[in-house]
Design a protein that fits this description.
The structure is a single chain. By secondary structure, the protein is α/β, with parallel strands linked by helices. It has a single domain (7-169), classed as Rossmann fold. The chain has three helices and nine strands, in the order βαβαβββαββββ. The protein has helices at residues 14-31, 49-58, 108-118; strands at residues 7-12, 39-45, 63-71, 83-86, 96-104, 124-132, 145-149, 155-156, 172-175. It has a six-stranded mixed β-sheet, with helices on both faces. A three-stranded antiparallel β-sheet has the order 1-9-8. α1 crosses α2. Bound molecules: 1-O-pyrophosphono-5-O-phosphono-alpha-D-ribofuranose, hypoxanthine and magnesium ion. The site of 1-O-pyrophosphono-5-O-phosphono-alpha-D-ribofuranose has 19 residues, from β3, β5 and α3.
Length: 180
């Protein structure tokens, strides 16, 4: 397969991702099978847009969706300061909340989002991520539903970008590090 310029290899292919998303949707449905009010699924944009839509299409749990826009990487490969550009519109007090991320890397973004949302007293709050990079963690995060643990590569595709590129790739690819 011809890879885009800037992508050196495929780390996780499309088929492997698709079966993982189905598996996660089943596990999550099972977790919320006795839920009494619709689950509030909150996607952190932009990165989560593909994973979250693939995931909710496979889920049977009654749910509603909302989005927050948080940005910390900008055009770089390092986390700078997390800024919240858009908040959710849903009142989550007393509601079951599932936060959906594309990747948890240092954990800084999610820690900030968890602090903001837990202050609003949800009935429960769980975390689902497609990718997890445990070796880079500086801020502890408890992940409830995890797709794949990956090594310390900067990756793109399935919503993830480097300088806004590669989000539409249907696989997870390793981004070439031009500084090497
Ligand atoms: O665990 P961390 O080190 O905080 O990194 C993870 C966050 O970084 C990325 O977002 P980014 O700031 O690139 O915004 P984007 O979703 O618009 O790409 C990614 O989508 C996560 O939200
Ligand atoms: O590896 C990554 N790729 C894209 N965005 C990211 N944000 C944190 N880590 C990454
Ligand atoms: Mg990004």
């Amino acid at each position: 397969m011809n890879l885009p310029k800037g992508i050196e290899s495929i780390l996780i292919d499309k088929e492997t991702i698709e079966s993982k998303v189905t598996e996660l949707a089943n596990i999550i449905d099972n977790n919320y099978k006795d839920i009494e009010t619709p689950l509030v699924v909150i996607g952190l944009l932009k990165g989560s847009f593909i994973f979250m839509s693939d995931l909710v299409k496979q889920m049977q749990t009654p749910l509603q969706v909302d989005f927050m826009i948080a940005s910390s990487y900008g055009d770089s490969m390092e986390n700078t300061e997390v800024s919240i550009i858009k908040d959710i519109e849903t009142h989550i007090s007393g509601r079951h909340v599932l936060i959906v991320e594309d990747i948890i890397d240092t954990g800084i973004t999610l820690t900030k989002i968890e602090n903001i949302l837990s202050n609003r007293n949800p009935k429960s709050m769980k975390i689902c991520t497609l990718l997890n990079k445990p070796s880079r963690r500086t801020s502890e995060v408890n992940i409830d539903f995890n797709g794949f643990d990956i090594d310390d590569h900067f990756v793109g595709g399935m919503g993830l970008d480097y300088a806004q590129k590669y989000r539409n790739l249907p696989y997870i690819g390793v981004v070439k590090n031009e500084k090497l």
